[in-house]
Amino acid sequence: MNLLPLFIAIPLGTAFVVVLLGKTRETYSDILATIAALILAILPFILILTLDKGEVLVYNMGKWLPPQGINLVLDGLSRLMLIIINVVGFLAIVYSVSYMKKFTAKSKYYGLFMLMLTGMNGVVLTGDFFNLFVFAEIAAISSYALVAFGVEAEELEASFKYMVMGSIATILILFSIGLLYGLTGSLNMADVGRTIQGNGSTLLSFSMVLFLTGFGIKAAIIPFHAWLPDAHPSAPAPVSAMLSGVLIKALGVYALMRIFFNVFGFNLQVSWVFMILGLLSIFGGGLLALRQDDLKRLLAYSSISQMGFIILGLGCGNYWGILGALFHLLNHSCFKSLLFLNSGAVEYSVGTRKLNKMGGLSKVMPVTGATSTIASLSISGIPPFNGFWSKLFIIIGLVQANHFVLAVLAILASVLTLAYYLRMQRNTFFGKLKKELERIKEAPLSMCFSMIVLAVACVGLGIFFYPVMKVILEPAVEVLQEGIKYSSIILGG
Amino acid sequence: MIFFLSFILFLIGLYCVLIKKNLLKMVMGIVIMEYSVSLFLILLGYKKGGFPPIVTAGVEGTNFVDPLPQALVITAIVISIASLALIISLCMRIYQKYKTFDITKIRKLKG
């Protein structure tokens, strides 16, 4: 049996049922959402166990063959993304069971959340451009609504800003899809990729630029980042964890990788564009993070900076660079989600996010303090943890591609990361406990569960990086390195 | 070149989003941009003297119109209506909170 449609059908079905169930009793919607998310989190592992390492699974909707029909494609890269989306999604749902109690209409929250999962799963599985656009819109529109979920003044403002930027991005993407259709007469990615080879048309370059801008806005790479530092901190904590940990990767970086590596083909110009944008993001995001006094805003800027590392690694174009980028993508989804969940726990117990109003919290909130320390050490690249390996691979990739200056800059940027995370740790969890904070209690059990699982994942990915690399990452790297052979793999022949 | 018409429309929309200070006017700019892209897609599917792609006894020849752009535009319009509804409701909520539609006065977020 082919499991691929389930990744879209389960969350889509749950999204509608959960809202109806919420009308009877709110607990039912908790249970249903958790079960659905658990099934979704298990499915990608079943796929990994049953399929061979490099096997590509193609599902043709209604048995219509591409390029006429719609197809879903599962290759190494999609498998990696499915794991990230569904596992982090499950943990965020478990976390929300306690965290979202202070909001009304919890079942509607689950509905929107499930729609967001539908959109992201669809984006990473789909094999044609138009469905990419449709699923990206499903995920984006539900995320606009989720950012504004608290309907306070700041949240509405952030959501409006996010929505204007996001709409412009989708319009540019649709424009570009239209251009590609005009050039090739097809919307299937594999078919388009085959048709445009050797076509040096200016319109093709124009559509590449439009794609880069559109998905660059979604990925919050630096010249297009303005919405992220407002939107991510304003959302409820589990949603911020999903947005920062998963959404910008699934909608932004994944789409960029798929289109630029597998459809257009990777070349020197693209490589330089990626590396320059990556460097800008690393330093811009890092330097802006250094002077933030709001906990979640600091994390949001740090997301921009870490996305820069991923783009920089992809820009190398060689084995180690791409491996490092994909590993950093996996790691970043672990530790950034964890840090956002931590910030949510702090906000839940203390009631503020200002760094100067906290201090010494690890004495009263041991689980949050310990997990947050692990996440901060991981993201700064301290050796036994996972962030170290991914940054090391990216730097090896840069050295192999003879970009020594960029390698040195990447090391410096990694030190910059350590600087702002140390500042965050010192102001929140270490130091003297303030008198008015002595009565603070640890966050509830379901919140602690998600944080502990993610912290274990951070340590585990660091220690067992070799098997993870062999089983999950290498097939994904292969997909990107094969480049435009993608079309012959999907269409055959 | 009729394609430039849709491009000009697109630029008008972009100007609206970038320059106007009223939230609703920005929303209108977005809508104009969406329309321009829809127009562009529909124009791509135009074929002079083409038939609808329905094979019946009376229709001869192969000069069929590709139905793909039409299907695409319908979907894009539905999506844009949904996002329009969401963004207008956001504007209404913002007006309730800030008592203004002026984007320069809606500045509680900093940085």
- Specify which chain pair forms the largest interface: A-B, 36 and 34 residues
Structural class of chain A: mainly alpha
The general outline of chain A is globular
Q: The CATH topology of chain B is what? A: Helix Hairpins
Average pLDDT across residues of chain A?
A: 89
Q: Point out poorly predicted stretches of chain A.
A: none
What is the rounded distance between the termini of chain A?
Answer: 25 Å
The protein's oligomeric status is: heterodimer
Main β-sheet of chain A, in a few words?
Answer: 2 strands, antiparallel
Describe this structure in words.
The complex is a heterodimer of chains A (493) and B (111). Chain A has helices spanning 6-22, 26-50, 76-99, 106-125, 129-147, 153-184, 189-195, 202-219, 228-234, 237-263, 268-290, 295-316, 319-350, 366-380, 386-400, 404-428, 445-463, 465-482, 486-491, and strands spanning 57-60, 71-74. Chain A has a two-stranded antiparallel ribbon with strand order 1-2. In chain A, helix 14 packs antiparallel against helix 16 (404-428). Chain A has one domain (6-491). The longest helix of chain A has 32 residues, at 153-184. By secondary structure, chain A is mainly α. Chain A is globular, with a radius of gyration of 21 Å. Chain B has 111 residues and is mainly alpha-helical. Chain B has one domain (3-46, 64-105): Orthogonal Bundle (Helix Hairpins). Chain B contains 3 helices and no strands. Chain B has helices at residues 3-19, 23-44, 68-98. In chain B, helix 2 packs antiparallel against helix 3 (68-98). The A-B interface holds A 130, 133-134, 137, 141, 144-145, 148, 151-154, 156-161, 163-164, 167-168, 171, 174-175, 178, 181-182, 185, 187, 229-230, 234, 288, 292, 297 and B 10, 14, 17, 23, 26, 30, 33-34, 37, 40-41, 44, 66, 68-69, 72, 75-76, 79, 82-83, 86-87, 90-91, 93-94, 97-98, 106-109, 111.
